[in-house]
Amino acid sequence: MEKELVVITGGPGTGKTTIIDGLIEQGYSCFPEISRQITLEAKKQGIEQLFLEKPLLFSELLLEGRRKQYQSALQDQAEIVFLDRGIPDILAYMHYIGDSYPAFFDQACHEHKYSKIFVLPPWEEIYESDEARYENFEQATLLFDHLKETYQNYNYELIEVPTGTVEERIQFILNQLS
């Protein structure tokens, strides 16, 4: 069997991390979202919200981290590896804020290909803001649209995960992979 690099994406507050945590509990190899780490590191250096204050720097750090995750996922022993967001997410967020970015961002999307993309739709009932999630629900919905468009621009077929319990959502994903 060929290695599967599976991305779980969606706007903020859609349950991605909860699903990744559930997959880890079931013994699957997973790579967490790294944007919170970058944001917390910037806060230690006195930058309150790096993505808002220096979006290109934030995105470059994120790209570097996601490239490393991709390489680690390729080297992982598991046949299926789940990633909380992929490289195209970075471009979707840049599109969302209307910022331009160097060509190497686009190149990275072409060089790092994923097997399957599961996208979680906006779900107002579970949406919560926190210190690292500054968007309101309407903005989260717009981000979802940018994510779908960006992944489709790189010729990915998106599999939308229905709302439901964590167990139901994980089972849906696993069923799509088998």
Q: What is the alpha-carbon Rg in Å?
A: 15 Å
Q: What structural class do helix, strand and pairing data support?
A: alpha/beta
What's the number of extended β-strand segments? 5
Helix content: 40-55%
* Tally of helical runs: 8
**Global geometry:** globular
As a percent range, the share of strand residues is 5-15%
Distance between the termini: 12 Å
| Average pLDDT | 89
Strands in their spatial order, largest beta sheet: 2-3-1-4-5
> Uncertain runs with pLDDT below 50, 5 residues or more?
none
- Reading the helices and strands in chain order gives EHEHHHEHHEHEH
Main sheet characteristics: 5 strands, parallel
Short description:
By secondary structure, the protein is of the alpha/beta class. It is built from 8 helices and 5 strands.
Task: Characterise this structure.
The mean pLDDT is 89. The longest helix has 21 residues, at 55-75. Helix 1 (16-25) crosses helix 8 (166-177) and helix 5 runs antiparallel to helix 6 (103-111). The chain is globular and about 40 Å long. The protein is built from eight helices and five strands. Strands 2-3-1-4-5 form a five-stranded parallel beta sheet, sandwiched between helices. It is an alpha/beta fold and 178 residues long.
Mind sketching the topology for me?
Elements: E1 4-10, H1 16-25, E2 29-31, H2 35-44, H3 50-53, H4 55-75, E3 80-84, H5 87-97, H6 103-111, E4 116-120, H7 137-153, E5 158-160, H8 166-177
Parallel strand pairs: 1-3, 1-4, 2-3, 4-5
